[in-house]
């Protein structure tokens, strides 16, 4: 077995066990906190901000750091770039979103369900006194960047989506929104789809986050029906998603090309 094969096996083992060797690109982003602890036995399947942004939300940031970030080049994903598309909380992105993204990029997909079954620590590193040092677990985005680098993808695009239903409150003359949970709807119900995109550069780890304006949709009841059946509402939700995704992805591609 040659040296290249040994190196590839070693890196694969690190990915599977959740342990990472030190990377100069992520020195500041991943070199602060230690092994993640207190992982829930019943974790949410949704990606968290820490999964996506790493430890940037907890870093000790100075004014110099902020000014240095402002001087960095703006984030771009040229049209037809190879990307990895991820939907938070789903094994694969919805077909509608894949179809829309494929009009602008060369799309590969990846699971948006992080594995938090157990906490793993590595004790392979030694300090200057030859004592074992606990290495930091590789976070979700760092591992995905490695996968993307192997596939020569330019960027990772993660989207988090939420369908909400709204009821008009005549007292306040506003629509009160809540998460849609397959409840009964009427012709006074409105629907809206909230989406947040996060784009991550594979080579540098730099990112951009964008939440486009949401689109509201008034549920309609056919004249022949006294109430909306499940098939009708499913069709209207599918139409809402399709129209929303088409508009949002077009805006995203134009914004970051």
From TrEMBL:
Keywords, ordered alphabetically: Signal
InterPro entries the record matches: YafT
Region forming the signal peptide: 1-23
PROSITE patterns (alphabetical): PROKAR_LIPOPROTEIN
Protein name: Aminopeptidase
UniProt organism field: Lelliottia wanjuensis
């Amino acid at each position: 077995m040659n040296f290249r094969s040994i190196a590839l096996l070693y890196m694969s083992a690190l990915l599977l066990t959740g342990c990472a060797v030190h990377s100069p690109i992520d020195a500041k982003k991943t070199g602060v906190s230690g092994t993640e602890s207190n992982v829930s036995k019943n974790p949410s399947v949704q990606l968290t901000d820490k999964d996506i942004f790493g430890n940037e939300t907890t870093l000790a940031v100075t004014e110099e750091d902020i000014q240095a970030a402002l001087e960095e080049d703006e984030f771009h994903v040229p049209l037809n770039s190879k990307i990895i598309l991820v939907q938070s909380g789903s094994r694969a992105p919805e077909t509608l979103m894949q179809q829309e993204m494929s009009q602008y990029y060369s799309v590969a997909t990846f699971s948006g369900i992080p594995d938090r079954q157990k906490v793993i620590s590595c004790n392979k590193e030694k300090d200057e006194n030859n004592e074992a040092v606990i290495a930091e677990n590789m976070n979700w985005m760092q591992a995905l960047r490695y996968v993307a680098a192997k596939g020569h993808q330019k960027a990772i695009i993660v989207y988090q989506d939420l369908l909400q239903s709204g009821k008009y409150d005549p007292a306040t003359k506003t629509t009160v929104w809540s998460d849609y949970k397959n409840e009964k709807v009427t012709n006074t119900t409105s629907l809206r789809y909230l989406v947040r995109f996060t784009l991550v550069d594979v080579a540098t780890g730099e990112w951009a986050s964008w939440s486009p304006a949401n689109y509201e949709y008034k549920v309609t009841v056919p004249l022949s029906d006294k109430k909306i059946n499940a098939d009708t509402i499913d069709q209207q939700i599918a139409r809402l998603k399709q129209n929303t995704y088409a508009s949002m992805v077009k805006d995203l591609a134009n914004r970051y090309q």
